[in-house]
Write a structure and sequence with these properties.
3 helices
């Protein structure tokens, strides 16, 4: 049905999505480890604590993490 390489690429993409979603959720909950690696704007947005920052990260995490 699908080739092994397609399955491997799918697994890599799925893993990257899960890591991305987990990091977004961590930052939305107030964590700041590695946040500076994404740029200065997210650091400033988190420092200000505005609802836009949390809504943005919640949306990213919700789209990336598996739902039951």
């Amino acid at each position: 049905m699908y080739s092994r390489s397609a399955s491997a690429f799918f697994a890599i993409a799925m893993g990257a999505g899960l890591i991305h979603g987990a990091a977004s959720l961590y930052w939305a909950l107030g964590g700041n480890w590695l946040l500076v690696t994404v740029g200065q704007l997210p650091v400033e947005m988190q420092r200000e604590g505005g609802p836009q920052f949390h809504m943005m990260l919640d949306a990213i995490a919700g789209a990336r993490l598996p739902q039951q």
